[in-house]
Amino acid sequence: MLKVEHLTKVYPNGTVALKDLSFEVPDGEFLVIIGLSGSGKSTLLRCINRLIDPTEGKITMDGIDITAAKGAELRHIRRQIGMIFQHFNLVKRSSVMTNVLSGRLGYLNSWSSTLGYFPHEEKERALAAMTRVGIADKVHSRADALSGGQQQRVGIARTLMQEPKLILADEPVASLDPVLAHSIMQYIEKLNEEDNVSVICSLHYLDLIQRYAERVIGLKDGVKVFEGLPSEINRAKFKEIYGEEAQDMRATALV
Amino acid sequence: METLKSLLHSLKRVLIIIAVIALLVLSIRVTKPDLVKLVSSFPKAKSIMGQLLRPEILGRESEKITVAQLVPVPCGSVANPEVPASGPRITVDPPCGNPKDKVQVRGYELPKNAELSIRWILPDGGLLSIKNAVTNANGELTETMELRPITAAVDGKPAQLAFEITLPEGKVVASQTLKDVLDAMFVTIFMALIATTIGTIFAVPLSFLAASNITRKGWLGSAVYYIVRAFLNIIRSYEPLVLATIFAMIVGFGSPFAGVIALSITTAASLGKMFSESVEGIDSGPIEAVTATGANKLQVVVYAVVPQIIPDFLSFTIYHWDINVRISTIIGFVGGGGIGYFLSQRINTLQYSQSGTALLAIILVVWALDFLSSEIRKQLV
């Protein structure tokens, strides 16, 4: 259970990214965050794994205070929280294998991993993760030799290495075409259902929201303006969140 | 109004053209080109270029034989030696004498038209060179010499008069010049290598300090950033040749060490700047992603930062080694040692065919390294 209480983030330049935000995510839930670019979605996700330090408020996971954690304790929390990025954030020049293995660094001895040594069972684990997302044949390819959809699957395999309790997905399909978008979303959904991993995912497309979300939170200028079921988001609600000029955006008309 | 505007416009254009022509005329006057001299010096140029284009690479191995004859000084100190009846031999007439006596020295059946050096082999084994001579077409030689006190016999052991004869038609081998050039070239290449290494060792930390995305955080970071950057820019504005001149005065003219110091400093500054731009250009995404997996700072650097900068760093370093070899070939002219020093000495003593050897070596090495470094860099990208 992830609990966010009165979360506020003010950047040094005075921008208020999040304002007094509170919500809960029960174990195994697929929560989707929607909102315009700049509405605070990325900031929220990064506050949860402390890539960004919140200004005020408290985030707890299974009773452990994430906001107060430091050093080794923080790294210990981070390794239970996987993250998937819009731009995949792979190390382009490294092999797919190295990229996937890097997801395990939080569990490994700092010195031997620094020298590039990974135990045999970790390599097995990496291969299993790659097989699960269907890229086992790309083990030795350089990450930048892969297509966008394949790169995102490497990103998911890297996250799998963490054996996470929670996955944060920051617009995971915004850089992909509509068909790939569904394929990637299905991998994430599978993790959510088969491994009982909670997912917090930011999305833009209404059809993806209605297809994958269990619950939706809408943000506008860092303030929660909607919380409810995907079926409750009608055209009017969507316009309320995205503004008057919003069109009914769909990833694909086919699905 | 419109016509006035276009008139001003064309006037401006004419003024610019006049100014450019004036500058060109001025620069021609200042540099004093003398085409007549270029043509009139043609015979001189032909001689110099002829020698430069005929670099000394191969030489004949000089085989040497020595013919010697005992000379008792004074007479009776040792029994008068016998002279063989045939074969290469030396006769002394009279066969013995006192110091200051003149004797006639004749050589028979020696190699024809051969250069030889006449010398005394003293009783203690020391050598005393007298003069160089050439045998005639019959392989004979006649010289008049004066006996000296130093040639007196010691403890019944007389001095010997010896001809050391250099035989023509020896084996063809690498010339001494080629060996010297190769030695100097090795000095140059290793001078560049060590300077590049030292420069890189200093450049890496400096580059991180001069990278805005790493250092420019808070007032202290900003201060460090601007100071390091200014420092790099100032150092970069010094030519390695100027620095080498200064250090040659300090550590000694012709010392490769002077060149190494000068090149190390300019390499550190120049690579520091290049590396810092590479560090500034890294993608923060992977850093974010690896940090999010729970990796510690060291692991983040090794898995997210290093893979991004390593190819650039290696490529720049090899490129700079290439540049440093080029610079160190001429750094010798200002006292930095290596092939440049060799070349400047040969040019100053008008040994043009030996200079030609050095020039050829420079061209070959620069070409080879240029090829090698671009091939290696191609592999790295």
What does this structure look like?
- The complex is a heterodimer of chains A (255) and B (381).
- Chain A has 9 helices and 10 strands.
- Chain A has helices at residues 41-48, 71-78, 96-101, 110-114, 120-132, 148-160, 178-194, 206-212, 235-242, and strands spanning 2-10, 16-25, 30-34, 56-61, 64-65, 81-84, 166-170, 198-202, 215-220, 223-228.
- In chain A, α5 packs across α6 (148-160) and α6 (148-160) packs parallel to α7 (178-194).
- The radius of gyration of chain A is 18 Å and the shape is globular.
- Chain A starts with a strand and ends in a 13-residue tail after the last helix.
- Chain B is α+β, with helices and mostly antiparallel strands and 381 residues long.
- Chain B folds into 2 domains: 60-173, Sandwich (Immunoglobulin-like); 176-380, MetI-like fold, CATH 1.10.3720.10.
- Chain B is 59% helix and 15% strand.
- Chain B has 12 helices and 9 strands.
- Chain B has a 4-stranded antiparallel sheet with strand order 2-8-5-6, with no helix packed on it. A 3-stranded antiparallel sheet of chain B has the order 3-4-7, with no helix packed on it. Chain B has a two-stranded antiparallel ribbon with strand order 1-9.
- In chain B, a hairpin with a 5-residue loop joins β5 (115-121) and β6.
- The mean pLDDT of chain B is 86.
